[in-house]
TrEMBL record:
This is DUF2256 domain-containing protein. InterPro entries: UCP037205. It comes from Maribacter luteus. It holds the Pfam family DUF2256.
Length: 42
């Protein structure tokens, strides 16, 4: 799959869009934050 066709979400902390990653494959629905830093600063 090309990068431009990957699903995207917006991080509620930094308000930046982030794309699907292989490590999130099994739990993409639960992913809310783009990084650990944003998750800690919620």
């Amino acid at each position: 799959m090309k990068k431009q066709h990957l699903p995207q979400k917006t991080c509620p902390v930094c308000l930046r869009p982030f794309s699907w990653r292989k490590k999130w494959e099994k739990h993409w629905e639960e992913v809310k934050y783009c990084s650990e830093r944003c998750r800690r600063n919620k």
